[in-house]
Design a protein that fits this description.
five-stranded mixed β-sheet, homodimer, D-Maltodextrin-Binding Protein, domain 2, alpha/beta, DNA-binding, 19% strand, four-stranded antiparallel β-sheet, Arc Repressor Mutant, subunit A, 300 residues
Chain lengths: 300, 300
DNA sequence: TCCATTGATCAAAAATCCTGATCTAAACAA
DNA sequence: TTGTTTAGATCAGGATTTTTGATCAATGGA
């Protein structure tokens, strides 16, 4: 059995209009055309769908049941034409975005909410990555990246960058950790453990990592929330985005260390490729992102 | 845009097989046929689905997205052919069953579980009715009825009946109700309230109800569970299926009244029309119903 | 009873789809 | 570089399917 969409449309129209004639008028056909389609449908299905003993052809129970399923087919077909129309009107089929896990997630979450609307046909893929993993994911084909900030603050490699405010990282430790009461320049004197968020690039070899920490003791963590927990537990010291530890600094659970370099300001950027124009989904994402982002970075 | 199932099948096959040629072989066509179908699909959709700059045609992101939706259409189409095959092999499109609310529901619930299996295409409709409502619903077209028992115990009106064991109704009241301590023949002397389950036939006129209770005080309830609650609350006395009040009799919350007629045995019947043969769904229902029914009626 | 309406049937016309030959261009090996 | 292989596009003719308009039978209402 191999039903045609035409046959299913005829079945649906006849059931809705109540007669072959009315359905034929709706489909801009002649009644005999529908007669032909339905006859073949019944023949191929091996089922009798209409009861012709009375003048008006009425659906049999079998016909009604099959109609239910036929309407599911037609519904998906309509979904296909709608999708084609949307793609034609500028929506990307898929939008991939990378976010540096050090950035505040709240504005990103607000932006992805817009993709739940039914009129947005684009599939959204959002990856939260760390360190080199952010650019690695971007190079693999993501259309947008929210990065912590390039060295020097400006763009490089011919990428199009839009500044998104500023993000402060602070060197902190638990208030009951010995390092909290030590003075400047003490960091190199002791073998305190430095907490670091692990690079999320898959093929990244830990040996090739710039050995700025020398042979000090280090603890690698998967993300900043875990790192915060470890810091609060007194595992060691480390850099944290200010917005993630404002509460702990206020309660005094964490303290800002008094070191030569204990504060670093980054300038987060929205990065995209300059050659290819933004699709409607990318524009939607940016429109829902930028405005609140500035505000949230400032206050958090 | 009006895509054809052929076009969608071609799109799906090319994506699965990796090339026009392999897909053509799978569909028993010639490559140029698929070329023609896809060209028209792209033309009507106004989208480019394949990238032909390289030798092997590869799906564009747009093509991949549209393919996702196309596969949904084909999936529903397959569901349609499967449904047709099932209906052809003897499954009814719909099965309607009525159950008298006085009967134990457990065996019925076991029977309807079988209809959750995906290989059962039949839509099941089950109505729990009371009194005249049971036969009323059966006459409206239900294929099967589980009735409390006809007067005289046998079948009537040329219906096919199968006995399902026996069901005892007991005349009971709350143990702290005045009637509980009264002796036989007292029922007519006092104006105690009789609790009754209301007839569920929609057009049933309460005036035409056989006035066997004369002008006594009555309280109509929607079902036996509600009636049990009202009995436990001491609202009055009434008949209850034994299986529903076994627990309350055991704890002593309800007591079996000592009256001339305080016990009635019914013989529940599975009723169906003798002229039309049973479909597979009806057979499935009965097969899952009968065996446990006898056991449950006896023990409950 | 007649008459309007519904739908089936049929042959011819129209549209669609398939085929097989031919052509272009990319990938690949020498 | 050159020639070979392979994937797919294109095109005209043929096969198939669908549509049409006329005709016919049957039902239900006036």
């Amino acid at each position: 059995m191999d039903p045609t969409l035409l046959q299913l449309e005829a079945l649906d129209a006849i059931a809705r209009c109540g007669s072959f004639g009315a359905a034929a008028a709706e489909l801009n056909r002649v009644p005999s055309a529908l007669s032909y389609l339905i006859k073949n449908l019944e023949l191929e299905a091996g089922l009798s769908l209409f009861d012709r003993t009375h003048r008006r052809a009425t659906l049999t129970p079998t016909g009604r049941r099959l109609l239910e399923q036929a309407r599911l087919v037609l519904k998906e077909r309509d979904g296909l034409t709608a999708l084609a129309s949307e793609l034609r009107s500028g929506w990307e089929p898929e939008l991939r975005v990378v976010v540096d896990g050090a950035l505040p997630l709240a504005p990103v979450i607000r932006a992805i909410r817009a993709f739940a609307e039914p009129e947005v046909p684009t599939f959204l893929r959002l990856d939260v990555e760390y360190q080199e993993g952010v650019l690695h994911r971007f190079e693999q084909g993501a259309e947008l990246a929210l990065v912590l900030g390039f060295e020097g603050g400006g763009g490089e490699e011919g990428l199009h960058c839009t500044p998104l405010g500023e993000l402060v990282l602070l060197l902190v430790a638990a208030s009951d950790h010995p390092i909290a009461s030590s003075k400047r320049e003490d960091l190199d004197q002791h073998n305190h453990v430095e907490l670091l968020v692990r690079d999320s690039a898959p093929a990244f070899e830990v040996d090739r990592k710039p050995s700025f920490m020398g042979n000090r003791n280090v603890m690698f963590l998967s993300d900043f929330q875990t790192k915060k927990t470890a810091l609060l537990g007194g595992a060691g010291y480390g850099w944290m985005p200010a917005h993630l530890i404002a509460d702990s600094l206020a309660t005094g659970a964490l303290v800002h260390l008094e070191q030569e370099v204990n504060r670093w300001t980054y300038f987060p950027q929205l990065v995209r490729r300059p050659d290819q124009p933004l699709g409607r989904a990318a524009q939607l994402f940016i429109a829902n992102l930028c405005l609140p982002f500035e505000a949230l970075v400032a206050t958090e």
